[in-house]
Specification:
CATH class of the largest domain: Mainly Beta
Strand content: 25-35%
Structural class: alpha+beta
Number of domains: 5
Largest sheet: 8 strands, mixed
CATH architecture of the largest domain: Sandwich
Helix content: 10-25%
Number of helices: 15
Number of strands: 38
Distance between the termini: 48 Å
Strand order of the largest sheet: 6-5-10-3-2-13-16-15
Radius of gyration: 29 Å
Shape: globular
């Protein structure tokens, strides 16, 4: 039997096992009727018992808008005495609890619902007899506590909770939320957190997007999709969100808007994705020129991997594609004087050319690029240059600005350039400049990585262009046509990439005008110009933070663009000041703002801009080497960010490490001094967590509140569920709520 928590208050679920009996007690449902005021309860302090949360497995199946979720928690006693394990976890407020199951020695023991007092009494009596009960108790604010007793030394116990939920649908997007972030209240790391989501839709699925995690999304066909995520040693998991849209047509689009302050510009996220199986529309034919470095520094494993990568790419060309190969050292050599059609005969000959590539000589990058770009003459075809190098230009033109200028002049067909930097000796700034000028992307391959894997991964992604030369237009109902362009600003990426089969466009920006708007995506497929439109609404004001991830995603992209501007165009104090402001507001640490994570540095320090300027000037002067490599690699991750971290912290680590861990949401961090919760960023300063929005004057006027005091409960009631999510700390918290600042201190603190 099920009850919806939105209209009823679920009190307690208990699994009771009678001594000597193999069958559980008969199940019944008991609820509390009427208006119930739920107050936050003290979170139990962790006991010194030696147990660990071995794993948490979440499996969700969505059929249209109905989600069926199963959460399995496995506890392991790693101590020497029998103990009770506790873990707090959330459930959505509109979920319907199905069951609780305790698994003991492979046997499933289902639970039953009963009155709180009776359940607690039965549970305690079973505990005294050292039987195997489990308790699921509602703690308020959508928070539940599981208690499992007994767990003998070296033994594991697994508890399963199943629930169903009607998912929200807004502007064509269905929103799945798995509030696993509250697992952080357990104060114990989770050995393995595994999440599997299956989507079965009667309407074609177009866009699938997770703003919170780097979920592995698969779309086997237009009506099914899967998402998988596995994290190890998780201490502060983020809530998982997965949004997907269903629309008819060749290309599906969805738009999410967020405007926390009606007096300021809002933020939008545009998703666009083609259908998986294209029945009538074939990918447009393309032209690809492979530019391969065969200089002496490529000797050994590098040139072997480059040969294999090139042979793989040749095999992936379609019969309507044209191609050529440019290999360079001191001299520049082409496979053929001009472009070749990728038929069986030419592909076989190209494979032979690839087998004949050997390393030796210097590095003539300028000559290789101008030769390759000069072969491209057909403006109607989609053209790509895949450029691979492992070093600096050593012969011919060596000045990176002149090399870039020559490449721009030679590119008369608006070809895209994708650059691969292999190893730490590559000039990353030159590669980024080339990729930016030619609307491509830079990929950096570490010395211990496989070149073939990285190159083939990108080529597989861009191998089937559906729409090229993309443009997006907004037509407002109440905005004059002349003002429509000004209504949308600061969009990222700055230049739209092509839309490929199986890929998804993620485009963010700011908007000034609100209300109804028609969004139109245009692109070229072969000789045909195609257009796709849909109507939506840009929010005038956002009542809650449910779409706050759009602002943070925009901030990440903006930070990436700032770093790129500073890298390519030199130090600019105005941009550095903006970088510092965004880092503070959104808890995004970079090597240039890592001093903000220093516990002894005030957020209001007047020298932040100066410190950042010195760091930026010093770090970005490095065009190559390990540090230069790491910075360019990570800059790209910010520019291409699709997930919002709970804490992106640099400290003294390379920015690439920050991007890999923080932006992906998976790498556990020790000694974390920055946290993002909801739309607030907290910095740990002098043994307390401080809301980044708190000014010096507000701090002076802060009201001191002791956790779980009458004042605390009154404050919690006044702010509903807003307060609870800002208190996942064991130390004092300085936070702005409404127009007042509070210093909330743990109970028992002085």
């Amino acid at each position: 039997m099920q009850r919806n928590l939105g209209g009823w208050v679920f009190t307690l679920l208990v699994l009771a096992i009678v001594a000597g009996a193999a069958q559980p007690l008969a199940a019944q449902v008991i609820v509390v009727e009427g208006d119930v005021v739920v107050r936050p309860r003290p979170i139990p302090r962790p006991v010194p018992a030696q147990y660990r949360i071995h794993s948490v497995d979440v499996n969700a199946t969505i059929r249209d808008q109905i989600a069926s979720v199963q959460i399995s928690q496995t506890f392991e006693n790693i101590g020497s005495r029998t103990l009770e394990a506790r873990i707090l976890f959330p459930l959505p407020t509109d979920a319907a609890i199905d069951s609780l199951t305790l698994i003991v020695d492979g046997k499933e023991l289902p639970g039953r619902l009963m009155k709180k007092a009776d359940a607690r009494r039965i549970y305690e009596s079973i505990v005294r007899r050292r039987q195997d009960p489990a308790l699921l108790e509602y703690m308020g604010q959508g928070l539940f506590q599981t208690r499992v007793f007994p767990i003998p030394p070296g033994v594991k116990r697994r508890v399963e909770i199943r629930y169903s939920q009607l998912l929200r649908k807004e502007n064509g997007l269905i929103d799945l939320r798995l509030p696993i972030g509250t697992l952080k209240h357990s104060h114990r790391p989770i050995g393995t957190l595994s999440i599997n989501v299956r989507i079965n839709s009667s309407s074609p699925i177009k866009t699938v997007f997770s703003p919170s995690h780097s979920v592995d999304i698969k779309r086997p066909d237009d009506n099914h999709a899967t998402g998988k995520l596995t994290l190890k040693n998780v201490t502060t998991p983020d809530d998982l969100r997965l949004l997907y849209g269903t629309r008819d047509g060749l290309v599906g689009m969805n738009l999410v808007s967020y405007r926390p302050d009606p007096k300021q510009d809002g933020y939008f996220l545009l998703l666009a994705s083609p259908q998986v199986k294209l029945n009538k529309t074939k990918p447009a034919p393309k032209t690809v020129v492979f530019v391969i470095d065969r200089s002496g520094s490529m000797n050994g494993k590098k040139i072997e991997q480059a040969r294999e990568a090139l042979k793989y790419l040749i095999g992936r060309l379609g019969p309507r594609d044209t191609f050529n190969i440019v290999a360079y050292d001191t001299q520049v050599e082409s496979f053929r004087p001009e472009l070749q059609r990728a038929d069986e005969k030419t592909r076989k000959a190209a494979l032979g050319f690839a087998d004949g590539l050997f390393a030796g000589g210097s590095t003539n990058i300028d000559g290789a690029l101008t030769t390759a770009l000069g072969m491209l003459v057909d403006k109607k075809r989609s053209s790509y240059v895949l450029f691979l190098t492992d070093g600096l230009p050593t012969v011919g033109e060596r000045n990176e600005l002149k090399i870039a200028a020559h490449a721009r002049a030679a590119n008369t067909v608006n070809a895209r350039m994708y650059s691969f930097g292999v190893g730490f000796d590559v000039n990353g700034r030159l590669l980024d400049r080339l990729s930016r000028d030619h609307r491509g992307q830079s990929v950096y391959v570490r010395p211990n990585e496989d070149i073939e894997v990285q190159v083939s991964k990108l080529f597989d992604r861009i191998g089937a262009p559906l729409l090229t030369n993309l443009s997006v237009g907004f037509e407002f109902d109440e905005v004059a046509r002349a003002d429509a362009a000004a209504a949308i600003s600061r969009t990222y990426p700055r230049e739209l990439t092509d839309l490929f089969r199986g890929e998804q466009l993620v485009w963010v920006g700011r908007y000034r005008s609100s209300g109804r708007v028609k969004v139109t995506l245009e692109g070229t497929n072969g000789d045909q110009r195609m257009s796709f439109s849909f109507a939506t609404t840009l929010a005038k004001s956002s009542r809650d933070e449910s779409k706050g991830f759009v602002e943070k995603l925009w901030a990440l992209r903006r930070i990436g663009e700032i770093i790129d501007d500073l890298d390519l165009n030199g130090t600019n104090q105005e941009l550095i000041d903006e970088l510092v402001r965004l880092s503070i507001a959104h808890g995004v640490m970079t090597p240039y703002t890592s001093f903000l994570a220093d516990e002894n540095t005030s957020l209001a320090a007047l020298d932040n801009g100066k410190r950042a300027r010195v760091t930026v000037t010093r770090e970005l002067a490095l065009t190559s080497g390990r540090a230069g490599f790491a910075q360019r690699d990570a800059k790209g991750k910010f520019q291409q960010a699709t997930t919002v971290p709970s804490a992106v912290q640099a400290g003294g680590r390379p920015l690439s490490d920050v991007a890999d861990g923080g932006l992906g949401g998976g790498r556990p961090q020790k000694n974390v001094t920055v946290r993002n919760i909801g739309q607030k960023s907290f910095f740990r300063k002098q043994n307390q967590w401080r809301d980044s929005a708190v000014t010096v004057e507000q701090e002076k006027r802060a009201i001191r509140v002791t956790q779980y005091s009458k004042t605390y409960f009154d404050l919690a009631a006044a702010h509903s569920g807003t307060l609870a999510k800002y208190l996942a700390f064991s130390e004092p918290v300085l936070v702005n709520l409404g127009n007042q600042t509070y210093l909330i201190e743990p109970s028992g603190s002085k």
